[in-house]
Amino acid sequence: MGSMVRPSSAALVLVLLMLTYSLCLCCQVRAARSMELVAQRRRVEKHMSAQSKAVREQLAGLNDNVLQLRNSVESWVAKIKSYERLLANALSLKGIDIIWREAQALKAKQEKQLQEHIGQIDKKVTSSCAAVVAANREFESQELKSLEEGGKYAPQNVPTYLAGIAGIDHHITQQQQSQQQQLAAVQQELSAALNSALASIEQLLPSHKQDMTLIETLNKFVEGAKKRASMELSRNSQEGEAIGTTLQQLHDAVARAANQQAAANVPAPAVDGAAAPPGDPVALEQCQALLSTVDRLRQQVLRQAQVGRLQMHD
To answer: For the residues 62-84, what does the mean pLDDT come to?
Structure first.
């Protein structure tokens, strides 16, 4: 038998040291890899959590915007309905028509504002949902790279993480479509509220116009009566002055007749061979003037009495 060569103790120790070093190095690599895998999972979970929060905040933002819009439209409806009070205080049919046109113009302006607000909210929905999707794409391009692609992720883990992110993409896409449908329904609802407010004003127009027509008719009648009364009063004043003048003339005629009568009662001195005068022509004229004055006074009083009866009849 040949003799066996036994390794020296030093060689054995060196081999053991090398095996121990290799084992420790392998354990360190495994530990580092395990820590890297845990860190990767945490980064993905952190991203998923942030994206879930972004999705919830996006929904909350929409709800806040819709609530503010509802409050605005509620105040717009109140402004339209305030025209009910203006209709009640209108002073003419023309005023009622002006108020109605103003209410229509206000409602048209509010419809335009509603459409603009809905458009602004829709843009916010689109941009906020797009931001969520863009954040996913950025995370995928910068983080989710396999070892073959120069990254640190194991090839078998990347599809799992991508599937989770794709779920967020699908959810935010469905949420955007649902919110846009909701906005269309909200616009229709709020527009109907504005139309209803304007219709409530329009329903009041016939009764207000009927009342105002009656009022304007009565006002015309009253104004006509006032004019007639003013004219009659003017004529009455003129007639009163004429009666006063006639009465004065009558008084003067009576006074002259009395003076002439008194003068006639005084006997005139006798003239030898003269006869008595057959009658005084002056006295005859005075009597005729007196009768004429009395007749004018009678006619004026008669006309005044007729005017009084017409006024009582009106």
So the answer is: 96
Q: How far is CA 264 from the centre of its chain?
A: 96
**What is the spatial distance between Cα 75 and Cα 191, in angstroms, rounded to a whole number?**
13
Q: Which residue from 116, 118, 117, 106 is spatially nearest to 78, judged by alpha carbons?
A: 106
The burial class, CB within 10 Å (0-12 / 13-18 / 19+), for 69 is: buried
Instruction: Give, as one character, the DSSP assignment of residue 244.
Output: H
Q: Which tens digits make up the pLDDT trace of 161-186?
A: 899 999 999 999 999 999 999 999 99
Which residues are CB-contacts of 202 (< 8 A; sequence separation ≥ 6)?
Answer: 100
Contacts with 80 (C-beta within 8 Å, 6 or more apart), sequence order: 103, 106, 107, 110, 194, 197, 198, 201
The Cα–Cα gap between 217 and 104 comes to 28
